[in-house]
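Q: What changes when 6-phosphogluconic acid is included in the input?
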Amino acid sequence: MSRTIEILSDVSAIAQKAAAIYLSAAQQAVREHGVFRVAMAGGSTPKALHAVLTADSFRSQLPWNKMQLFFGDERHVPPDHQDSNYRMVNETFVLKTPIKPEQVFRIKAELQDTEKAALDYEQTLSTQFALKPGELPRFDLMLLGMGNEGHTLSLFPGTTALRDNGRLVVRTWVGKLYTERITCTAPVANNSAAVLFMIAGADKAPALKAVLEGPYEPEQLPSQLIKPSNGKLFFLVDSVAGGMLSKGLAAH
Ligand code: 6PG
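A: The predicted holo structure follows.
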């Protein structure tokens, strides 16, 4: 695994750098196997990336008709709900591109039974990646964020989702938010060809330092679980989120 940590001035600088990584991953994937399968991230930080990718300079270069969009995790809400990761990606990205609905594979989080939603998405991954039993899907790129307590995807500290038990996708109860989530598990992330964290905001500085420089405590800091076994790992962080990192750890 190659790990690159880069401190950039702000979210738009992160978005520019992330867009370059996204484009090269897309071009490489299409060259190698004719399709670019990417797991989109939830939360708010990815919106800046979506704006850059749908702007002229990148728009003309991306292989839109060869892309398949998946989701790393989802909130337990319908697709038109304001908290929906699918809705965010659809409105800030998909609808601004030539991507067709059949190229987008969302998590059916409107289902009351979240275990059903998790099993359904496992079936979607199994079908789209033509998986044999026990095989993991290999995203060409997985986009991730990190919470100020070190969670990523919907892998929250102390939750059952941290113990994947061979599952690709699980439902998980997140007590601190009093809600359920549906999330890909760490082994799925770690089978990606590239994983790209985009992290911004001063409130994330202590957790980021702990994730990158602290003792290995993934129960406390689930982002530490993300170590691609045969892939690249990128941390693009802004100057305040990266403010506590030891000198020399990151490229500026
Ligand atoms: C989610 C995300 C989650 C997110 C972090 C960071 O569904 O919320 O998957 O893991 O990436 O919470 O979110 P921000 O980018 O909004 O800080």
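Observations recorded in class: The helical segments are 11-33, 46-53, 56-59, 85-92, 114-128, 186-190, 205-213.
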